[in-house]
Amino acid sequence: MKKVFAFVAMMGLLTFGVNQTINAQETEAAAVEEVAQDSASVSEADETVQAAPAQVEEAEAKQGLHKTIKIKFIEGSAGFMALVAIAMIFGLALCIERIIFLSLSEINSKKLLEDIQTALENGDVEGAKTISRNTRGPVASICYQGMMRIDEGLDVVERSVVSYGSVQASNLEKNLSWITLFIAMSPSLGFLGTVIGMVQAFDDIQKAGDISPNVVAGGMKVALITTIFGIIVALILQVFYNYILSKVEALNTDMEDSSVSLLDIIMKYNLKFKK
Fold first, then answer.
1. Does this model's pTM top 0.70?
2. Which of 44, 143, 237, 250 is 20 to 30 Å apart from 220, CA to CA?
């Protein structure tokens, strides 16, 4: 019996000890997890605190770019920088006007010619004239001029179409010479500011009697800033100018193709109704 009681007591002690050990380990693990969570929270807070200045610096950098442009504009001699800005404004205004005009001049010329052909196949000359007159664009204008002389012979129609096509091509190229003028003026004004800035730098050197970086820096800075702005304006206008030229070439090609197709349609009409 004593052995049994001793065995039971020993087993109880062992069980109690194991339970205590397990409880201690669970408590320690929970404490470790809590510490880890606290550390993670602290790390996230630190990252947030570190990210906040970065966001502030980024916002300041965005605002600083706009302010930097203003400062550089003022530092580049307001007189010459204003001339470059005026050249850019007028050049962009002319470019936008040409782009809008050319975009409105583009039509579905194939559909127009199909409608004219359908009207002429039915002998409806007035209907063909109405279709051409009510359609915008140089192609429709050329077709209308040809339809106005449809009774005077194919040679007269051809001369009328060619002559009026030249007028429409000139209208498409209107104001392009002014755009090229502003493209050439922008860097020229920048270089003029450069030369004047260098002259100012040499005047400052002469007055100071000493060649030092502080004396030369002011005039050279004005020179470089005006040159940079002039070249940037010229590049912007040149991109728009090339885009406009591509649209003009496309419209000229469309007018030539439409003129040939119109003459074929009128010839078929003459063969059918004027035998």
1. no
2. 237
